[in-house]
């Protein structure tokens, strides 16, 4: 497939996978989320007291908010991503539950206070993923640009549901694979 065909295919797959995810009953997604959270807790115990980049859930994604409380109780810090340049990397802002959030791009909450940090690990939501740990996102390229820009590169964990698994996402030169993909069914390592 040439790059134009890949763009069309990805757009179609994104829509198909989002429809499938959003159409999954909320109770089933919650149960899957609990399994994902349990797997993440085991993995994150290996890296105590880190700055962990999380995200605010959007369009029926895995909800990491319960994990945030656990991380903070365990001595880690969390940060939420903010879009500051639509063609640039994300900016991670330190945040604790209870601190004020404001609407960011697509009305996704971001910390009002701009305390920029460099996370040692990041959680990236998946629309789709493949066996080589490449992530199909929403198409904006934010996570790929962010991983390319951060030094040192954070440990990148893609999270999503097994129903989002694809044979390939047809990786392009700008795609950066995740170090791990965590679903309710498994942990895949690159």
Give an overview of the whole structure.
The radius of gyration is 16 Å and the shape is globular. The longest helix has 21 residues. The protein is built from four helices and eleven strands. Helix 2 runs parallel beside helix 3. The model has no long low-confidence stretch (mean pLDDT 95). A hairpin with a 5-residue loop joins strand 7 and strand 8. The protein is 31% helix and 21% strand. The protein is of the alpha/beta class and 190 residues long. The strands form three sheets. A seven-stranded mixed beta sheet has the order 3-2-1-6-9-10-11, sandwiched between helices.
Kindly list the characteristics that best describe this protein.
seven-stranded mixed sheet, two-stranded antiparallel ribbon, 190 residues, 4 helices, 21% strand, alpha/beta, 31% helix, globular, 11 strands
Task: Give the averaged pLDDT, no decimals.
Answer: 95
Shape: globular
Largest sheet: 7 strands, mixed
* Gyration radius, in Å: 16 Å
Strand order of the largest sheet: 3-2-1-6-9-10-11
Low-confidence runs? none
Order of helices and strands: HHEHEEEEEEEHEEE
> How many separate helices?
4
Distance between the termini: 24 Å
Helix content: 25-40%
How much of the sequence lies in strands comes to: 15-25%
């Amino acid at each position: 497939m040439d790059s134009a065909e890949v763009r069309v295919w990805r757009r179609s797959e994104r829509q198909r996978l989002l429809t499938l995810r959003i159409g999954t009953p909320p109770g089933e997604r919650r149960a899957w989320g609990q399994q994902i959270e349990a797997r993440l807790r085991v993995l994150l115990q290996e890296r105590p007291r880190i700055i962990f980049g999380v995200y605010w859930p959007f369009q029926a994604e895995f909800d990491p908010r319960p994990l945030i409380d656990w991380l903070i109780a365990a001595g880690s810090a969390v940060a939420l991503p903010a879009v500051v340049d639509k063609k640039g990397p994300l900016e991670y802002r330190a945040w604790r539950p209870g601190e004020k959030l404001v609407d960011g791009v697509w009305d996704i909450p971001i910390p009002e206070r701009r305390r920029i940090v460099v996370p040692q690990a990041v959680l990236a939501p998946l629309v789709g993923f493949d066996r080589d740990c490449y992530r199909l996102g929403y198409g904006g390229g934010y996570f790929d640009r962010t991983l390319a820009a951060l030094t040192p590169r954070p440990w990148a964990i893609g999270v999503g549901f097994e129903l989002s698994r694809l044979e390939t996402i047809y990786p392009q030169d700008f795609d950066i694979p995740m170090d791990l993909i965590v679903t309710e069914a498994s942990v895949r390592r690159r």
